[in-house]
Amino acid sequence: MKIIETSHIAKRYIMGTEIIDALKDVTISVSKGEYVAFMGPSGSGKSTLMNIIGCLDSPTSGKYILNSKDVSDMTENELAEVRNKEIGFVFQTFNLLPRMTSLENVALPLIYAGYTKAQRTERAMAALKSVGLEQRAGHRPNELSGGQRQRVAVARALVNDPSILLADEPTGNLDTRTSYEIMDLFDQLHSKGNTIVVVTHEDDIAKYAHRIIRLRDGLVETDVVNANPTKVK
Ligand code: ADP
Ligand code: ADP
Fold first, then answer.
1. What residue spans of 138-175 are helical by DSSP H?
2. Are 112 and 83 in contact (CB under 8 A)?
3. Which of 32, 47, 155, 165 has the maximal Cβ count within 10 Å?
4. What is the rounded CA–CA span in Å between residue 60 and residue 49?
5. Cα(155)–Cα(61) distance, rounded to whole angstroms?
6. What is the pTM of this model?
7. What residues does ligand 2 touch, defined as CB less than 6 Å away?
8. Which residue intervals of 63-145 are DSSP H helices?
9. How far is the CA of 56 from the centre of ligand 1 (A)?
10. H/E stretch holding 183
């Protein structure tokens, strides 16, 4: 079953008289349960592609089918709805709300989904448990280590049971040892059947993925199976 299917996607930015073709012709498909890394040098189009895959932006031309829905020509509001349902985002900077506890941060996406308070607490606790942080439910971000903060962010990303976990440079603000902690977590989530897309410029991080797609100048340069993904243990 395909989760991501892009067909000849292009993205053009026009800045004054300058035309930038950030993506020129990108056709990829990702199946349910895959663990993929997008790599490429700065300016190759990674963020642009991530924004399109994550329904933060639309392509200028081409087709994007997300979980059997054509999202290519959706309005901002329609995109926002699909995004909340289908995508769990993890960012380099964690983006947790500082005055809220771990549990409250993780429960936040459920408010918009219309759950009762009791249901929200139950689901948020289950998500915290899945990242090994149920003991830190009452802590605020500044009472947590960097790795723990990112695990809270992963729990928040997963709490709505999205079809894709989409992580943009998830270890960019972490030291090497803590990075392994997060990659170990991604490994476990992949084993449980989650579909994971990581965008990174770091080889060491991409090597955990089971497939590596390399972009250059807005095109797919290589798309290879990683037969020997790095394991933490
Ligand atoms: P990467 O994430 O691989 O560094 P980007 O997708 O950010 O690449 O950028 C690809 C190209 O598109 C670059 O030339 C960049 O300057 C340009 N670009 C990205 N976003 C915008 C934007 N919002 N407006 C204009 N140009 C942009
Ligand atoms: P970069 O990869 O350049 O460091 P970020 O990781 O901060 O940038 O963000 C990648 C993209 O996701 C950007 O286009 C940004 O606007 C968007 N983004 C970042 N944080 C959020 C958020 N909390 N909600 C929605 N979009 C976000």
1. 146-158
2. no
3. 155
4. 12
5. 34
6. 0.89
7. 47, 51, 56, 91-93, 95, 168-169
8. 76-86, 102-112, 117-130
9. 14
10. helix 176-191
